Amino acid sequence: MSSRNLFGTDGVRGVAGEVLTAELALALGRAVTLAAAAAAPRVLVIRDTRESGEMLEAALAAGVTSVGGEVLLGGVLPTPAAPLLLARYGFDVAAVISASHNPYRDNGIKFFGADGLKLTDETEARIEAILAADAAGDRVAPAGGTGRIRPLHGTHEDYLRELHTRFQALDLTGVDVLLDCAHGATYRVAPEIFRRLGATTHVIADEPDGRNINDGCGSTHVEALGAAVVAGGHHLGFAFDGDGDRVLAVDRTGAVVDGDELIALAALHLRAQDRLRGGGVAVTVMTNYGFHTAMAAAGIAVETTGVGDRYVLEALRDRDWALGGEQSGHIIDMDFVPSGDGIASALLTLEALAGSDLADRRGMDKLPQKLVNVKVGDRDAAMTDAGLLAAVAAESAALEGRGRVLVRPSGTEQLVRVMVEAPTADETDAVCARLVALVPGALS
Q: N or C, where is the chain less crowded by C-beta within 10 Å?
C-alpha cells in the first residue's frame, strides 16, 4: 500500500491558490471518484464561506464528473452536515471544502465515505497512488462518459430537521443566548435552530464576506464573545469555528468553558439518564487532569488517545462508545453524527444544564494548566535526551495523584510541547519552568 504524503490528519490543506490549487482539486475529484467502491458514484460537495471555496468547488466537481461521477452541490453548510446528508440521501462520498479554524487564505478538502466516516488511511493512500499515476502519465481511463453537476436544494432544512429531531424535547424558552458564528458555515443554521427551540437568540460574526472567517472571532478568539456576553447581559454564549465542528462556551460572567468542561457536563448528564453508551468517554492526552478525577468519581470510564479527532473517533468505534472529544471544543456524539458538531454540542450542553446557570456548573474542577511550546533544532533528538526524560519522570512522580506532566513532540513543527497540571498555579508554573529549562537544543 502506498504511503500518505498529501493527506494530513484532516484531509488535504494549504494556502488556496498556492498549495491547494484548482488543478489539485480537480485531480483529487478525479482520484476520489476512481477510488470509490461504487461505479459512477454520487458525490455531495459542501463548503464554508472562504472566497476560495467556489473555485475549489468548481474544480473538484469537474474532476468528479470527468470520470463519470455525479456531483450534488449542497452549498455553505457546517462539516457535520456531510455525514448526516450522506445517510439521508445515500451518497457514496461527501467532500467538505474548508480549513476549519484557520485564516481565510487557507483552505482544505476532506472526504467522508458512504458510512459517514472520514476516509480510512488505506483509501487515502489509494487516492494518492492514483494521483501519482496520473502525474506519471499513467492515467486510468474512465469506464463511462462524463457525469453531471446539479444543485441540491433544501440542504439547510435537512440539517435543521436532523438537529430538531434530536433535540425536540429541549425547550429553550427564557434562555438568552449569544452566538458567535465566526463569519463561517454556521451563520444561518445556528441562529435558526436556537430560535426554533425557543431561545432569545442574538448573533455576532454572522456576515461573511469571504475573507473575515475566523478573523478575531469564533472559537479561536472566544474572548470577544465573553466581552459581548457580559456587556449585553446574556445568560451565556457559544462560539463556533469556521466549519462548525467545534464550539466553546462562555458563561454570564465572561468565563470561558472549554471542551473538557463541556464533555464532562455531557457525560454526567447522559450517564444520569442511562444514555451514555458503553459507560465511557474518549478524550485526548491534552484533557485536563480534573476531568479524569471527575469521571473517576462518577464511575465513568475514560480512554485517552493522541491529539486529533480522528483518534478520538477510532477509540469510540473500537469500544462502541458514543461520547468523546477534545479540549478545543471538538465534541463527538456518535448517537447523533460520527463527527464533531458544534451546534449539536451547544444544544447538548443546554440539555445537560436543564435550565440551570452555566456559571454554576458542577461538571469538573479544572487544575491550573500551563503549556509552553519550545522551539528546538531537532524535536526527535530532544525527546530522547536522558536528562529531560529523567526530569519528566521525577516531576511526574512528585505530582502522582495530584496532577501530571506531559512532554511531547509536535507532529508538524520543530517544537517540544511541555504541559504541566498541578493543584496550584504557582506549582504549575514552577514545574513547567524547570522542565522547559532542560529541553536540549532550544532555540531563542
A: C
Amino acid at 64: V
* Residues 107 and 53 sit within 8 Å (Cβ to Cβ): yes
pLDDT tens, position by position, 321-363: 999 999 999 999 999 999 999 999 999 999 999 989 999 998 9
Q: How far apart are CA 13 and CA 21, in angstroms?
A: 10
Question: Any binding-site annotation on 245?
Answer: yes
- Within 8 A by CB and 6+ apart from 30, the residues are 63, 64, 66, 67, 130, 134
Spell out the CATH class of 158-254: alpha beta
Residues 414, 437: Cα–Cα separation, whole Å: 17
32 CA to centre of own chain: 22
- ∠ CA(102), CA(191), CA(87), 5° rounding? 75
Residue 10: all three cell numbers together? 484532516
The answer to whether 176 is annotated as binding is no
pTM for the predicted model, two decimal places: 0.92
Q: Return the C-alpha cell found at 240.
A: 463556533
User: Is 241 within any annotated ligand binding site?
Assistant: yes
Q: Which CATH architecture has domain 369-436?
A: 2-Layer Sandwich (3.30)
Residue with cell 513532540: 409
C-alpha cell at 60: 473538484
Active site positions, annotated: 100
Determine contact, residues 100/50, Cβ cutoff 8 Å.
Answer: no
Mean pLDDT of 43-61: 98
CATH assignment, 12-153: 3.40.120.10
pLDDT in tens, 98-142: 999 999 999 999 999 999 999 988 999 999 999 998 888 877 666
Kindly state which CATH superfamily the domain 257-360 is placed in.
Alpha-D-Glucose-1,6-Bisphosphate, subunit A, domain 3 (3.40.120.10)
Q: For the chain, give every residue range classified as CATH 3.30.310.50.
A: 369-436
Average pLDDT, the chain: 94
* Residues near 433 by beta carbon (within 8 Å), at least 6 away in sequence: none
Is 206 annotated for ligand binding? Answer: no
